[in-house]
Amino acid sequence: MKRLLSCSFARRLFKPRTQYTIHSQESKESMEKSPMTTSNNNFDSQSSNENGKEIGSAAATNIVLNHEFSDGLNSWQPNCCDAFVVPASSGYHKGLTTEEGCCYAVVTNRKECWQGLEQDITSGVSAGSTYTVSACVGASGTFQGSVDVLATLKLVYQNSETNYLFIAKKSASKECWEILEGSFSLSTMPDQVIFYLEGPRAGADLLIKSVMITCPSSTACDSSGTASVSTDDDNIIVNPQFDDGLNSWSGRGCKVVSHDSMADGKITPMSGKYFASATERTQTWNGIQQDITGRVKRKLAYEVTAVVRIYGNNVTSADLRGTLYVKAADNRERYIGIASVQATDKDWVKLQGKFLINDSPSQVVVFLEGPPPGTDILLNNCVIKHASKAPPPSPPVIEDAAFGVNIITNTSLNDGTNGWFPLGNCTMSVQTGSPHIMPPMARDSLGAHEPLSGRYILVTNRTQNWMGPAQMITDKVKLYLTYQVSAWVKIGQASGPQSVNVALGVDSQWVNGGQVEISDDRWHEIGGSFRIEKQAAKVMVYIQGPAAGVNLMVAGLQIFPVDRRARFRHLKRQTAKIHKRDVMLKFSGSDSGSLHGTFIRVRQLQNSFPFGSAISRTNMDNEDFNAFFVKNFNWAVFGNELKWYWTEAQQGNFNYKDADELLDFCTKNNIQVRGHCIFWEVVGTVQAWVQSLNKNDLMTAVQNRLTGLLTRYKGKFEHYDVNNEMMHGSFYQDRLGKEIRVNMFKTAHQLDPSPILFVNDYHVEDGSDTRSSPEKYIEHILDLQEHGAPVGGIGIQGHIDSPVGPIVCSALDKLGILGLPIWFTEVDVSSDNEYVRADDLEVMLREAYAHPAVEGIMLWGFWELFMSRPNAHLVNAEGDINEAGKRYLALKHEWLSHSHGHIDEQGQFSFSGFHGSYEVEVITVSKKISKKFVVDKGDGALLISIDL
Question: Which ranges are annotated Polar residues under compositional bias (predicted)?
Answer without folding.
Answer: 35-50
